[in-house]
Design goal:
Radius of gyration: 21 Å
CATH architecture of the largest domain: Orthogonal Bundle
Distance between the termini: 51 Å
Shape: elongated
Structural class: mainly alpha
Number of helices: 7
Helix content: 55-70%
CATH topology of the largest domain: 434 Repressor (Amino-terminal Domain)
CATH superfamily of the largest domain: lambda repressor-like DNA-binding domains
Largest sheet: none
Number of domains: 2
CATH class of the largest domain: Mainly Alpha
C-alpha cells in the first residue's frame, strides 16, 4: 500500500483507528505498524510542522522544566537581560546560546535560528 493523496491518507487514518488496539503478533497489529509508518511519512511530506523560533523553544522548555525567568539569569546575564531576550527586544548572543543549550538541553542549531525582534 502507498499513500499518494489525501483520500488515501484519510482511508489509512480510518483503518488505523479500527485496528489500533489489535493484539501484538496478529496480522492486524502488523498492518497497524505499517500504516503508522506510511501515515507518518505522508504527514512529514504534506503537513510539515515548523520548528518554533528560538525564543518560543526556550519558553516551551522553561514551562516543561517549571523554570521562571529568574532561573535563566546565570545563562543569559541579569534579570533585565532575560526579560529583554524573552520579550524579543534583544537577540541571543553566541555565549547565551551555548549556555541555554546546556541548561535547557536544546539543540544549538535550534537556538541559532534567526527570529524577528519586537519593536
Amino acid at each position: 500500500m502507498k499513500i499518494e493523496n489525501d483520500e488515501d491518507y484519510n482511508f489509512a487514518l480510518k483503518r488505523l483507528q479500527e485496528i489500533f488496539d489489535a493484539p501484538i503478533g496478529t496480522p492486524e497489529s502488523d498492518e497497524a505498524n505499517v500504516l503508522a509508518l506510511l501515515i507518518d511519512e505522508y504527514e512529514k511530506q504534506h503537513y510539515p510542522i515548523e520548528a518554533p523560533d528560538p525564543i518560543e523553544a526556550i519558553k516551551i522548555r522553561m514551562e516543561e522544566m517549571n523554570l521562571k525567568q529568574a532561573d535563566l539569569i546565570t545563562e543569559i546575564g541579569g534579570k533585565s537581560m532575560v526579560s529583554e531576550i524573552l520579550n524579543k527586544k534583544r537577540k541571543l548572543t553566541v555565549e547565551m546560546i551555548r549556555n541555554l543549550a546546556v541548561r535547557l538541553n536544546l539543540s544549538a542549531g535550534l537556538l541559532v535560528r534567526d527570529y524577528q525582534l519586537n519593536s
